[in-house]
């Protein structure tokens, strides 16, 4: 697990959110319902800190419109490389579908600027990750998509789909994005699920040049092949 530096922007945000969430945490301490009951993160490219789960104040609230009161905080995910961070949640049945909002902060320490951010839902972690099946009940607030998804100051979300959220924009190296918020419908009948999140780096100019060369050579080869026939 990563660490937060006292006085840093992520630490200040964490303290502010903790203070705001404290009444809800205390009020839910004796709640009987539990949907997401735990989480563990897996990644070779990032550290995760400031994560905590509030017992749902409104279980089985699918399909709530607007911001769901059920919340999981993951306040600092610090990427040091490009790749996925898998967060595996432990789930207990509550007799319905509970809609959660996830609130995040993401730090870019990769040395690369980012042009996007991709979120997926599935099962398993790392090379064992498998995308969830469409229609399986685990989704990003499908089919109504009546709760907001926001991606902080750098990104704008594309229209959501059942199992993918993609945001595009420009997030420079060394930037921190707070205010990332999205919704997940968590059904009964599963014991775990995985939220996979991956930054998308701005393509290197050399990569773009290489891609153009490949395209030109391919076009020329096709033309010569047609002439030779
Ligand atoms: Ca929903
Ligand atoms: Ca749903
Ligand atoms: Ca909703």
Would you mind describing this structure in some detail?
This protein has helices at 9-27, 205-228; strands at residues 36-42, 46-53, 71-79, 85-91, 98-108, 114-123, 130-131, 150-151, 155-157, 164-171, 176-186, 192-201. The protein has one domain (9-203). The chain is α+β, with helices and mostly antiparallel strands. A hairpin with a 6-residue loop joins strand 9 and strand 10 (164-171). It is globular, with a radius of gyration of 20 Å. 31% of the residues are buried. The strands form 2 sheets. Strands 1, 4, 6, 7, 9, 10 and 12 form a 7-stranded antiparallel sheet that branches. A 5-stranded mixed sheet has the order 2-3-5-11-8, with helices on one face. The chain is built from 2 helices and 12 strands; from the N terminus they run αββββββββββββα.
Radius of gyration: 20 Å
Could you tell me the mean pLDDT?
Answer: 85
Task: Provide the helix percentage.
Answer: 10-25%
Shape: globular
């Amino acid at each position: 697990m990563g660490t937060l530096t006292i006085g840093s922007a992520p630490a200040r945000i964490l303290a502010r959110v903790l203070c705001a969430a404290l009444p809800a945490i205390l009020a839910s301490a004796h709640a009987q319902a539990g949907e997401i009951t735990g989480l563990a993160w897996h990644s070779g490219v990032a550290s995760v800190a400031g994560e905590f789960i509030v017992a749902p104040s409104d279980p089985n609230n699918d399909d709530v419109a607007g911001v769901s009161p059920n919340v999981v905080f993951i306040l600092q995910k610090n990427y040091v490389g490009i790749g996925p961070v898998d967060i595996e949640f432990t789930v207990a049945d509550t007799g319905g579908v509970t809609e959660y909002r996830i609130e995040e902060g993401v730090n870019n320490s990769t040395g690369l600027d980012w042009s996007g951010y991709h979120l997926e839902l599935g099962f398993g972690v790392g090379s064992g990750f498998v995308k969830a099946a469409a229609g399986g009940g685990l989704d990003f607030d499908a089919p109504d998509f009546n709760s907001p998804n926001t991606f902080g100051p750098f990104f704008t979300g594309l229209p959501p789909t059942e199992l993918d959220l993609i945001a595009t924009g420009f997030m420079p190296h060394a930037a921190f994005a707070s205010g990332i918020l999205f919704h997940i419908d968590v059904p009964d009948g599963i014991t775990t699920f995985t939220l996979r999140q991956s930054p998308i780096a701005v393509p290197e100019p050399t990569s773009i040049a290489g891609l153009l060369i490949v395209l030109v050579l391919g076009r020329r080869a096709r033309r010569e092949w047609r002439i030779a026939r």
